[in-house]
Amino acid sequence: MNKSLLLSWIAAIIATLGSLYFSEVMHFVPCTLCWYQRIFMYPLAIILGIAVYRNDTGISKYVLPISVIGLLISGYHTLLQKIPAMKQFEMCTSGVPCSQDYLNWFGFITIPLLAFVAFAIITVCMVILARSNKE
Fold first, then answer.
1. Range among 11-15, 19-23, 85-89 with highest mean pLDDT value
2. What are the backbone dihedrals phi and psi of residue 105, each rounded to the nearest 5 degrees, phi first?
3. Cβ contacts of 76 within 8 Å, gap of 6 or more
């Protein structure tokens, strides 16, 4: 079993279950950017789970584009919440504002930051996996 593959799957599972917990148990209404992040994270939990089961180390070429796009969206969302000058670039015009912090652990850990970390773990693991396949 490849450790990078397993770690990326665990990160995707935790991120998926965490987002479901925040919306379904804590009743936090997701903003538009949160939905986009979910669109990119949820399939990763399934795709990476199948790859772990099959020990498919060639999956990185399919997962990397998805995780990088999710990383960019969650990075933008994190900046939007933490840098006041970014509010002028806010995309959410109806419903829950994307700049709203439901969660602010230790003054800097927000839901988009948690998603960013998960996407970063998956991206780094997939780069490592891709490089090990070339050797």
1. 11-15
2. -70, 135
3. 33
Give the integer Cα–Cα distance in Å for 95 and 124: 34
32-54 helix and 111-134 helix, angle to the nearest 10 degrees: 30
Contacts of residue 40, Cβ cutoff 8 Å, sequence gap at least 6: 66, 67, 69, 70, 73, 119
Domains by residue range for the chain, with CATH: 3-134 (1.20.1550)
Cβ atoms 108, 60 nearer than 8 A: no
pLDDT, position 75: 92
Residues 6+ positions from 69 with CB-CB distance below 8 Å: 40
Comparing C-alpha atoms, which of 62, 68, 66, 72 is closest to residue 133?
Answer: 62
C-alpha distance across the termini of the chain, in Å? 17
Enter the tokens of residue 106: 């230790």
Quote the distance between the C-alpha of residue 24 and its chain's center: 18
| Element (DSSP H or E) covering residue 112 | helix 111-134
